[in-house]
Every structure is written in structure tokens, then in C-alpha cells.
Amino acid sequence: xxxxxxxxxxxxxxxxxxxxxxxxxxxxxxxxxxxxxxxxxxxxxxxxxxxxxxxxxxxxxxxxxxxxxxxxxxxxxxxxxxxxxxxxxxxxxxxxxxxxxxxxxxxxxxxxxxxxxxxxxxxxxxxxxxxxxxxxxxxxxxxxxxxxxxxxxxxxxxxxxxxxxxxxxxxxxxxxxxxxxxxxxxxxxxxxxxxxxxxxxxx
Length: 203
Fold this sequence. Notes:
With 203 residues, the chain is of the alpha+beta class. It has a domain at 154-203. Helix content is 33%, strand content 10%. The chain is built from 4 helices and 6 strands, in the order E-E-E-E-E-E-H-H-H-H. Strands 1-4 form a two-stranded parallel sheet. A two-stranded antiparallel sheet has the order 2-3. It is elongated and about 90 Å long. The N and C termini lie far apart (120 Å).
């Protein structure tokens, strides 16, 4: 990379050839602060280079020494991170920064793989019930939305029956109320008719 400048390059895999990547311009940034789930902090993350030979003493998948790209430097090269040990679709370095287990496809045992939770569904790969409604994410049709029906201890049929009962009760009340009103009007009219009849007899 010689003609391109002012770029920020991170979370890439340079795995081909003896010289994975180079930058002769010296005006590009090869690492970026990235959110680190286990500690809730931002950490510098660079790229993976097949020809990087630095050590990783603390086991955080970030090389202990920078990777030199001619005129530029990657201060946080990814070490061994371009592998996917558990075969879930997430590279080791992605799992490390999400806090998931690189040896387990489904870290929280909710029925969804770590890859699906991180890349597709948006659920928490470290919490098997993301919305806290008592249903495992893998069994929940809406894992990001609290199922109020379940929290209330009622199923959908119960709510439907209750709704129908309320509706029927209101209709019955209206019918009865209407009948009583009609009956009252009839009584009033009948009373008025009797009074008129009595007055006519007196004359």
C-alpha cells in the first residue's frame, strides 16, 4: 500500500504469501480501539498477519511486539486469531473480544451458536435469555422482546378467552341495558296513556 493514505485498517486477515501486508506511505493507521466484552473496556486491535512471529505471553491473542509494515506499524497484531477452533464461524480473536468460549460453539447453551448471536440475531452470546422473559433465546420467537404473556403466568389462549369473555359481557350488558331502557320507555308511555284516559272519562 503506497498510494492510499489516511485509512484505518483493522480486524483483517492477511494470510497469503511470504509478505502478508506492507505500507510504504506511512500515513495509515493499522490498529483501532475496539470494545472488549469481558472487561467492558476498549482495547487496541490490529490485524492478523501470516508471517508475524511475535509471542503472546499474556494469552490475549494480541502479539506482544508490533508488526512492521515498512513505513507503518501495527501496534496490536492479532496472534493465532485467524483460526476458528470450535467451527462456529467466529474467528478466535472475535470470540476473545466477545468473551465467548473458543472451544464451544454455543457458549451460553441457549440453542443458538455464538456466530448467530454475534452476527445475526443480536442476542447476547453470554446470556441464554437475553430479554429475561424465562425462555431460552434458541426457543424464543422474539428473543429481544420480553414475552409479557409468559411473565403474567398466562398463555395466549387464556388471554384470548379473557378477552372474549370481556367482549361478550359488554355486549350482554348493552343488550340488557337496552332492554331495560326500552321497557322503561314503554312503562312511561303506558302511564301517560292511562292518565289521559282517566282525564277523558272525568269529562
